[in-house]
What does this fold into?
Amino acid sequence: MIRKIGIGCGGLIVLVMSSCSAATPAPTPRPGSSAVYERIAALTDCPSLQREFDTADANGKRDREAGRAEQAAWATAYMRAADERMKSLKCY
It folds into this structure.
């Protein structure tokens, strides 16, 4: 709904600025493979999720030691996804 307000140009600028600041930012894409996130989301048993977490942890350590920062960041994101899934299933 558009309302006309007779407060001049200064009011219009404030109105435009406030409407821009209320915009929702675009979601940040998750690093790595969407297939890994889908696999984690589909798991329903805690031991399998713990294995996903442990695998990502080992891969991340290997990647950091080899200087592969981008892949290490993917591993950290996979660990976070597995951890969040375990929490949602009340694994701990």
Remarks:
- The longest helix spans residues 46-65.
- The chain has four helices and no strands.
- Confidence is low (pLDDT under 50) at residues 1-5, 9-20.
- Residues 15 and 21 are 10 Å apart (CA to CA).
